Amino acid sequence: MITVDFTLFPVGPGDRVLDLGCGGGRHAFEVYRRGADIVAFDQNVEDLASVEAMFAAMKDEGEAPASAAAEAVKGDALDMPFDDASFDRVIAAEIFEHIPHDTAAMKELYRVLRPGGIAAVTVPGFLPERICWALSEEYHTNEGGHIRIYTRAELEAKLKATGFHIGPHHHAHALHAPYWWIKCAVGTGNDDHPLVKAYHELLVWDMFQAPAVTRAAERLLNPVIGKSVVVYVRKPLDAA
Fold first, then answer.
1. pLDDT tens, residue by residue, 83-107
2. For residue 122, which of 93, 164, 90, 162 has the smallest C-alpha distance?
3. Looking at residue 145, what is its pLDDT?
4. DSSP class of residue 164?
5. Closest-CA residue to 68 (of 32, 40, 39, 41)
6. How many other CB atoms are there within 10 angstroms of residue 145's CB atom?
7. What are the strands of the beta sheet with 70-74, ordered from one edge?
8. Theoretical Cys-Cys bridge with 86: which of 2, 82, 106, 230, CB 3.0 to 4.6 Å?
9. Is the dihedral of CA 154, 160, 163, 165 positive or negative?
10. Are 118 and 8 contacting, i.e. CB atoms less than 8 angstroms apart?
11. Is 179 exposed, middle or buried (0-12, 13-18, 19+ CB in 10 A)?
C-alpha cells in the first residue's frame, strides 16, 4: 500500500533516497523498483531483517535495476548516522506521530537532505485519527503508539519552522479509515471479529483488483476521511 505519489516525488537512477522509519518497507521497495539507491532506516531490527530479505529477493528476481543499491540501517531518527546533505530524497511515512520530540526529528531530516532535495512526509489524517482516539484508548496508549494528532496546518507549520519550503499535499487511503474505526470499536487486537475480517478481505480484494468504482469512491472520500495526509517539502537551494 503506497501512500506517496511518485508523480509528485520523482525518484530514479542516480538518486539516493532515505526511507526514514521504513517499517515493513513498502515505500523502500517501490523506490528500489524505480532504480534509485535506497537506505531503509528504522530502529526495529525485526522489520529491518525482513526488509533486507526482500531487497535480496528483488535483486535475485530482477525486480530492480542492477545499477540500484539497497541497504537496511538501524538507528535513531533523532541522531542519524549519516553525513549532512547525504540524500536527494527522504520519505518519512507515518513516523512523526510516534516521536515525542518531533521537531528534533524534523531537524535531522532537514540535515541529511541535500539543498534542493524533496521530502515526502505523511501522518494520519486529523478526522480519522480523532475518531480512532475517541473509540479506543488502547489505540493511542499502547507502547510505541500515536502520541499526537496533527492538523495539516500544524504539520506544515512545524516543517516550515524547520526551514522547509512547503509544496503540494493530498490525502490517501480513505477506504482504510472505516477499517480502523471498526478495529477500535471491537478491540484493536481482535482481528478475528467478523466485521474486521470481512472488511480486511474487502481491502485485500480492492488492493489486487483495483476496480474503477472503489478507485473513484476513494478519490472522492480522500479529502474528507483519508487515513493519511501527505505533504511534500523542499530544502532551499541556498540552505547552509
1. 999 999 999 999 999 999 999 999 9
2. 93
3. 81
4. P
5. 32
6. 12
7. 70-74, 37-42, 16-20, 87-93, 113-124, 228-234, 165-172
8. 82
9. positive
10. no
11. middle
List 52, 94, 97, 138, catalytic entry:
94
The pLDDT tens digits for 23-74 are 999 999 999 999 999 999 999 999 999 999 999 999 999 999 999 999 999 9
pLDDT at 240 > cutoff 70: no
**Would you state the torsion angle of the CA atoms of residues 106, 108, 112, 118, taken in this order, to the nearest 10 degrees?**
0
Read off the DSSP letter of residue 15: -
What does the chain come to in residues?
Answer: 240
DSSP 97: G
Label residue 131 exposed, middle or buried (CB < 10 Å: 0-12, 13-18, 19+). middle
The secondary structure of residue 9, as a DSSP letter, is S
Task: For residues 46 and 1, give the distance between their C-alpha atoms in angstroms, rounded to a whole number.
Answer: 20
Cα 36 from chain centroid (whole Å): 17
Read off the pTM: 0.94
Q: What's the pLDDT score for residue 120?
A: 98
**φ and ψ of 191, to 5 deg:** -70, -15
**Any catalytic annotation for residue 94?**
yes
